[in-house]
Structure formats: structure tokens, C-alpha cells
Specification:
- By secondary structure, the chain is mostly helical.
- It is built from four helices and no strands.
- Helix 1 packs antiparallel against helix 2.
- The protein is flat, with a radius of gyration of 14 Å.
- The protein starts with a helix and ends with a helix.
- The mean pLDDT is 92.
Length: 104
């Protein structure tokens, strides 16, 4: 269950990053509340995951999911660059997160 919490924390982190961009575009209370709620849920699920997972592993995987997911969402929704090196770097971050799971 702890890995499920960690994945949920990463997903809400991605949504929070997406909502930061939405807030910059719309500047309304709905976008702000969605951003704050997403980050709040992200921290709650991270906290639950860290009850049993080592802090270093949990934090690294959480940040990896958030950073990679944010970059991928930027490519999908905002037309950010999809060059091979960028995709390779995202794959390295995700591979490192998987590696941490395998050794923990």
C-alpha cells in the first residue's frame, strides 16, 4: 500500500504543477484552489508512504514522478519540445525511480 500512496503522491504533484501553469493563465480562485488541493493531497500521500518507506527513497521517487510527469504534461498540453535528448533524460529519471524501488 505504501508504494500506492507514493504513486498517488507523485500524480497529485504532477497535477499541482499543471495547475501552477493554469493559475498563471487564468488567475482565478478555482485554479488556485485546485493547485493548493493537489499539492496538499500530494503531501498527505507522501507522508503516508513515508510511514513505511525510507525517506530518501520516498522523496526521490516522489520528485522523479513529479518532475518527469510535469515535463511530459508540458509536452502533451503546452507544446514543449519533444526532442530525443529530453525524452531520454525523462526516461533516466523514471528508470532511477524504478531502480530505487528495486533496491529498497
Amino acid at each position: 500500500m505504501n508504494w500506492t500512496f507514493l504513486i498517488l503522491a507523485g500524480i497529485f504533484e504532477m497535477v499541482g504543477v499543471l495547475m501552477i501553469n493554469k493559475l498563471h493563465q487564468d488567475k482565478n480562485i478555482k485554479a488556485f484552489m485546485m493547485m493548493a488541493g493537489s499539492f496538499g493531497l500530494s503531501f498527505i500521500f507522501l507522508s503516508l508512504a513515508m510511514e513505511t518507506l525510507p525517506m530518501g527513497t520516498a522523496y526521490a521517487v516522489w520528485t522523479g514522478i513529479g518532475a518527469s510527469g510535469g515535463a511530459i504534461l508540458g509536452m502533451i498540453f503546452y507544446g514543449e519540445s519533444k526532442n530525443v535528448m529530453r525524452v531520454l533524460c525523462i526516461a533516466l529519471v523514471l528508470g532511477s525511480a524504478v531502480g530505487l524501488k528495486l533496491v529498497s
